[in-house]
Amino acid sequence: MTPLPPPLAFLLLTISLPSALSSTTTSSSLAKSAAAKSSPFYYDPTSRYPTPSTLLLRRDGGALPFLWRKWDRAKSLALLEQAVEDHNAEIVATSSNLVDSVSYRRCIALPLDDRLFDPPPGVFSHGHVDTGDKMSLSRNFWDAIARSKAEVPWLFEVSRVEGVTSPRVPLPPDEHHHPSSTTLSRAVGGAIDFRSPNNFVFLPRWMFKSLGLRPFDVVDVRLVTNTPPGSAVRLRPHTSKFLDIGNHQAVLETELKHYSALTLGSTIPFDYRGERYHFDVVDLRSAPRGERVNTAKVQDCDIAAEFVRARDQLKPKRKTKRKDE
């Protein structure tokens, strides 16, 4: 057997030596992390998107530590995908019928990118990837629609999972979000396509913010057929500039067509003449009795939309100080 060339032998020794030296520390750290993180749906937050410039591309200490970190992140993501796959396999195996077996999935959430998901020109949703409620789903949800004979609009509920989804992302005060989004746990939307890989769902960015999600967070997605039709919605613009538009009511009616449903407590965006406007959904009523609901269909519904005072016109609440006698 011919000996290895010195450079190759040195490279193999450099790779294997840190692994051998750190085997004991690795086993103890794994034991601690297993005790602290009982959920298998865990992904190391230090490797989360979107920080490639500071985490994925750092080469402190040379190329080998960089490759080692890349390998560790890939392994963590593979374990996460396997945990989600195992959960969904159990759902399929224990479902009582075919419809139930394809109507619900636990998924890894990623943000929609208009460079990949924007429909071609001429399609209704073209240019509205971020200003609509459409999500990219896996093929099984199309099978669920066909088997259940669900009526249009096809709606899907995305929800945080207690004890599984990571803690909510703290949003800065100047970020466009509804104050109620700090507690919002579910949202409803439509489908832009059914070509997402199995166990993944791609969501519009406003839905990420409203649900306090990070990329690679685990959520539950299910086909819903009991969402009531909407009769009225009240929206709060973040800026009064939108109300200065001469035909702002017509703009609202046009842009609402890109939403299949609305969720109370969420913040939805519209685009008009190259500028983006944000609106809080502050009140939502269902037909025919006008009851206040958390979600309602707006597609193919005769819904009355009105504005309330813009956020920048609201007076800040005064804090009264109690004087000690």
UniProtKB/TrEMBL annotation:
Q: Which Gene3D superfamilies match?
A: 3.10.330.10, Ubiquitin fusion degradation protein UFD1, N-terminal domain (2.40.40.50)
Q: Where is the Ubiquitin fusion degradation protein UFD1 N-terminal subdomain domain?
A: 127-225, 230-308
Cell membrane in keyword set? no
Q: Which positions make up the signal peptide? A: 1-22
Q: Which UniProt keywords apply?
A: Signal, Ubl conjugation pathway
**PANTHER family given in the database record:** UBIQUITIN FUSION DEGRADATON PROTEIN 1, UBIQUITIN RECOGNITION FACTOR IN ER-ASSOCIATED DEGRADATION PROTEIN 1
Record-stated family: Belongs to the UFD1 family.
Q: Please state what the protein is called.
A: Ubiquitin fusion degradation protein 1
> From which source organism is this entry?
Stephanodiscus triporus
